[in-house]
Amino acid sequence: MVPRSWRKIRYRYDVRGSYCENCGNYHYPPRNFCPTCRRKGKLVETLFPEEGRVVSYTVVREKEPYIIALIELDNGARVLSQLSCEPGEVKIGMRVKKAFRRYGEDGEDGIIHYGTKFVPVD
Amino acid sequence: MRRVAVVGVGQSKFGELWDKGFRDIVLEAGREALEDADLEGKEIEAIFVGNMSGGRYLGQEHIAALIADYAGLAEFGIPATRVEAADASGGLAVRQAYMAVASGMHDIVIAAGAEKVTDVGDPMEILSASVDIEWERFVGGNLPALYAIIARLHMETFGTTEEDLALVSVKNHRNGALNPKAQFRREIRVEDILNSPYVAEPLKLLDCASVSDGAAAVILASEDVAKKITDTPVFIEACTQSSDYLALQSRKDILSMKSVVKAARDAYRLADVGPEDIQVAEVHDSFTIAEILAYEDLGFAEKGKGVELIREGVTEIGGKIPVNPSGGLKACGHAVGATGVRQIVELTLQLRGEAGNRQVDAEKGLALNIGGTGATAVVSVLGR
């Protein structure tokens, strides 16, 4: 359950974050304010690299198990996302890339949630 | 700033309290604290209550006024304030009460913490509202999953094993068996933990504290007043709080909780002690990995060497720094907003020498209460 505003947030569908032109840091998700530079910061929204590596992960053992990974993109920003692959395939350091996938729905007849997941780079 | 002492402590039993309501358990803890301090309710000048989610666990907001009412103190118009920082709410209530007395605004106040989680909803799901709902929970990152991600990296980086994590649970259950207020009073073996089902790999069911019902209360007084009330004041020598980025993905290093490091550093400075002076600690073992991180971030061990303390028995009752003699969150049950107050109850009993057969020999104690995955940390140093 998240606020309904998520459906209109573009950041759900692309890996989109902010870049501070003052300090050169990338932030995911996008921020309104650069925590390093504060009022001197100059944040611009930008598309992030679609590939990165797995920093760490877990397999959540619910009825339908799923994998969540903390991924470091090639620009240094980190993203928490699901991985679409077999649990046995995942390794720390593994290269992954962005994919557009289904996350779930609000009940049987409800709205379907889509968003970004990652898949192994072959 | 005035010195502040704990002059009374009380606690309900923690667990699945089906036959009791929220107000019953709060009143039970409050009454016990008043009797312990030998004070009348009307001598209390203010109430602070730590409660994470009355709204979702019970459908009841305005918790502080409810408590003032049922404590019979609405008659006197007592100011009553609820504070919230997820499962650090209790520690934060103690800190607000501490500041109210230290500042000179009040002489005697009560800090309570309470949560009734078993009545409505899924307790762990509601506790998981402590993480970033839009950017962690949305993708499936509940609280166990995020701690599991930390645990996995700790294992990969430092060679920590699932057996090491299990040792934390074994120790805390052994201690909890000695605590009449604990939910789980049975010892468990390493194999029991290793054979329990995975919740989020590498964390298994018996690596996780259960989310439970419970309430705790402490009465704080200024030094002058405390010395008139009791012969055994336990002083709060520091009570500090720090924050960190809410989501793991915003942190540069997830193997250390920056909030804990900073709150501990500030607390040691204010109390004029170092980690080597701490003789007993109650830390936030919501998941076994969290206790290992606490050893490191509090300075009991170097980063990556926390597991040595549990392997070598250093944190057992009778070891050099007993940690969680109460049984911790794991064996007491994690009554969310009550946990941070319960930790102060335990340290007070330990420092007074009233902890029964789980008594340790200590003059200085430390409590660490964490909100979520560490976006809030509260550290208290107590001394007698």
Brief digest:
The complex is a heterodimer of chains A (122) and B (384). With 122 residues, chain A is an all-beta fold.
Structure description:
The complex is a heterodimer of chains A (122) and B (384). Chain A is mainly β and 122 residues long. Helices cover 0% and strands 46% of the residues of chain A. Chain A has 2 domains: 15-48; 49-122, OB fold (Dihydrolipoamide Acetyltransferase, E2P) (Beta Barrel), CATH 2.40.50. Chain A has no helices and 8 strands. The radius of gyration of chain A is 16 Å and the shape is globular. The N and C termini of chain A lie far apart (34 Å). Chain B has 14 helices and 11 strands. In chain B, the strands form 2 sheets. In chain B, strands 3-2-4-7-1-8-11-10-9 form a 9-stranded mixed beta sheet, sandwiched between helices. In chain B, a hairpin with a 2-residue loop joins strand 5 and strand 6 (203-204). In chain B, helix 4 (89-102) packs across helix 14 and helix 7 packs across helix 11 (288-297). Chain B starts with a strand and ends with a strand. The mean pLDDT of chain B is 97. Classes of the chains: A mainly beta (122), B alpha/beta (384). Chain A binds chain B through residues 1-3, 6, 27-29, 55-61, 66, 68-70, 78-82, 87, 92, 103, 113, 115, 117, and chain B through 133-142, 144-145, 148-150, 152-153, 156, 197-203, 247-250, 254.
